[in-house]
């Protein structure tokens, strides 16, 4: 799947931006489709599969978007309930957009397998949960693995599990797990480094504000872009602050497609768009009427526009040679016009 992408693949991550409403989740799926996304992604967990309910210091969030929450309450707020997921998959299928999910434990994988999830994402914070990575890989479905916070050794270990137990079709996503991520910390050069290090396709899970980083990543080799998606950031929600709105998704899809086409292939050949502009190049032209046998000199030939005559580099060598025929002023000089 990932090796055969002919355009950047855009995933709109709904996450908890449904704000507890099934109808809102469906509307977000439809909006993602309407604004050009290839795929929508949800998340499959319950607060009890993520953590335990505790107010001990280890479980309390201090600072950032979710300041003051304990982990259980955060995931209770942000979850996409298991009982919604069949309906969401059916809705996406009905309107013609791919839907996938991030499973956060084995029960989530089991549920998603009953829904025929076409491929899976491993979240950044779960890439070190190698038993879960193995369980997902054993479905033999394509996988994307987000690498936020992971060092090279941790990524290598996860990739080895995927290669050993999976179908071999996987992609890594460069990610910085900051919510939002400052642009000066996104370090997009890591995309090329990951491609070289792990010999696989690489995409971007982007938490920066705006589309600049995502568009730029295409020039560095990213084949897939994932960004969080919502109706309107002002409405709030677990991920609203770093999510794109519908008009931003539309712009992203258009811009990365243009960026990908603009990269093209390295070549020094004239491009079709240039062919009509050859008249603006210089070449050697007859600028005074010349009789057969007359010598070329700097008065009767010049290097001028357009570019249909001999190359200007031949000018000095032609001076002093003779014309093979009568040549009218304004004629592009050719080899056949010159006697040697």
Topology:
Blueprint: E1 9-13, H1 22-34, E2 39-44, H2 47-50, H3 71-78, H4 82-95, E3 98-103, H5 106-114, E4 120-122, H6 130-137, E5 143-146, H7 152-165, E6 170-175, H8 190-198, E7 201-206, H9 212-219, E8 224-228, H10 246-263, E9 283-286, E10 301-304, H11 315-318, E11 322-323, E12 338-339
Parallel strand pairs: 1-2, 1-8, 2-3, 4-5, 5-6, 6-7, 7-8
Antiparallel strand pairs: 9-10, 11-12
Helix pairs in contact: 1-4, 6-7, 9-10
CATH superfamily of the largest domain, called what? Aldolase class I
Domain module tally? 2
* Cα gyration radius (Å): 30 Å
- Fraction of helical residues: 25-40%
Question: How do the strands of the widest beta sheet line up side by side?
Answer: 3-2-1-8-7-6-5-4
Number of helices: 11
Low-confidence stretches: none
SS-based class: alpha/beta
**How would you describe the shape?**
elongated
* CATH topology type of the largest domain: TIM Barrel
How would you describe what is shown here?
This protein is of the alpha/beta class. The protein has two domains: 2-46 and 81-263, TIM Barrel (Alpha-Beta Barrel), CATH 3.20.20.70; 272-339, Antifreeze-like/N-acetylneuraminic acid synthase C-terminal domain (Type Iii Antifreeze Protein Isoform Hplc 12). 32% of the residues lie in helices and 16% in strands. It contains eleven helices and twelve strands. The chain has helices at residues 22-34, 47-50, 71-78, 82-95, 106-114, 130-137, 152-165, 190-198, 212-219, 246-263, 315-318; strands spanning 9-13, 39-44, 98-103, 120-122, 143-146, 170-175, 201-206, 224-228, 283-286, 301-304, 322-323, 338-339. The chain has an eight-stranded parallel beta sheet. β4, α6 (130-137) and β5 (143-146) form a beta-alpha-beta unit. The longest helix is centred in the C-terminal third of the chain and has 18 residues, at 246-263. The model has no long low-confidence stretch (mean pLDDT 96).
